[in-house]
Amino acid sequence: MKRAGGWILGFLVIASMTAATWFVVGPALNRKTIAVIFLQSGRGDTPTSRALLRGATRALDEAGSRAGKFKVILINHASPSPDAPDPIDVWFGTSEAILDLGDQQRWPLLISAFETHPRELSRAFQITPTFERQGQAAAAWAVRKGATRVFVIYEDQNPRSAAIGMAFWTAAKASGLEAQGCALGTPPNSSISRVDDIVAIKPDLIFFAGESAPYGRTFELFSMLRKEGFNGPLIAGEADPEVSFLATRPDLAEGTYLVSPFAPAPPELATRMGFVPGPHVTAGYYAMKAALEAIDHANSMEPEDLRRAAAKLPYFDAQGKAALRKCALYVARNGRFEFVELLE
């Protein structure tokens, strides 16, 4: 997280230095041109960052780089542009990167493409379901599967895994399920213990709240549970959505499930793009679409106008902030995850 903060601070310094030039030579143009800033998270320039930018660029191209009365340019904060107008009004990226901005009260419009930090973003608009939504969706699915006794496992030093696991446990208890759980140590080569004890409890369903990439622990844990005789549903969460399970090729225990914040791209989006976009391209596309539509509907750069317009967009729920898109359930078949259904 410190690396991201350093990059952001560097960009803001450069932007403020160019502001004087804009004030002298181009005030009229500065009123018409605005920048949407993409924030990378702590991992810097990664395949995920590049995928988010591809999706955002596609949405901007479709709009002709316009929104309302404004011309819109997309700036990658890691590669600042001397042509960026000042002030910057709209920012989007992962939640970790947005948190690194510091005081959220300073920024007129913040859009989180997907959650990478369990801390709530009080002023950011969420494009993709949160960690809490993952856990709740998994618990609701357990109820629909007819489970009465469930067991949740999470990584004790992984705050994302813990957040998903706690949301699952809380939702399961609220639904009348008998819920128990345990934590695993996080060193990647540590042995997984208590498998015999878990199986002896005879749960109907076991939920592993997730791990950090490259996901070897999920395969190890689920394989051990099957070996010890557990035959019920095994379901994992996405505790590292920046390197989504769906965007990798880890070993998978056949027939096990994944609840993910990344639902498949709608058919109409795939038709527009000419290919089926991956989870991060899709998130970047919708983040930019939301930014552009908020600007277009507000036709203003006033913070309250922007936020009021964004709250009414079809990407967010009735309260105007949380993602309207649903979590999705996948099943491991022949070494790949296949889409099963959207989860409430």
Outline the fold blueprint.
Blueprint: H1 2-25, H2 27-32, E1 33-39, H3 47-62, E2 66-67, E3 70-76, E4 90-93, H4 95-100, E5 109-112, E6 124-126, H5 131-144, E7 149-155, H6 159-174, E8 178-184, H7 195-201, E9 205-208, H8 216-227, E10 234-236, E11 257-260, H9 267-273, H10 279-298, H11 303-311, E12 327-333, E13 336-343
Parallel strand pairs: 1-3, 1-4, 4-5, 5-6, 7-8, 7-9, 9-10, 10-11
Antiparallel strand pairs: 2-3, 11-12, 12-13
Give an overview of the whole structure:
By secondary structure, the chain is of the alpha/beta class. The protein folds into 2 domains: 2-130 and 265-311, Response regulator (Rossmann fold, 3-Layer(aba) Sandwich), CATH 3.40.50; 131-260 and 326-343, Rossmann fold (3-Layer(aba) Sandwich). It is 40% helix and 19% strand. It has 11 helices and 13 strands. The chain has a 7-stranded mixed β-sheet. Strands 2-3-1-4-5-6 form a 6-stranded mixed β-sheet. Helix 6 links the parallel strand 7 (149-155) and strand 8. The protein is elongated and about 65 Å long. The two termini are 32 Å apart. Residues 1-31 have low confidence and may be disordered.
Question: What is the gist of this entry?
Answer:
With 344 residues, the chain is of the alpha/beta class. The protein has helices spanning 2-25, 27-32, 47-62, 95-100, 131-144, 159-174, 195-201, 216-227, 267-273, 279-298, 303-311, and strands at residues 33-39, 66-67, 70-76, 90-93, 109-112, 124-126, 149-155, 178-184, 205-208, 234-236, 257-260, 327-333, 336-343.
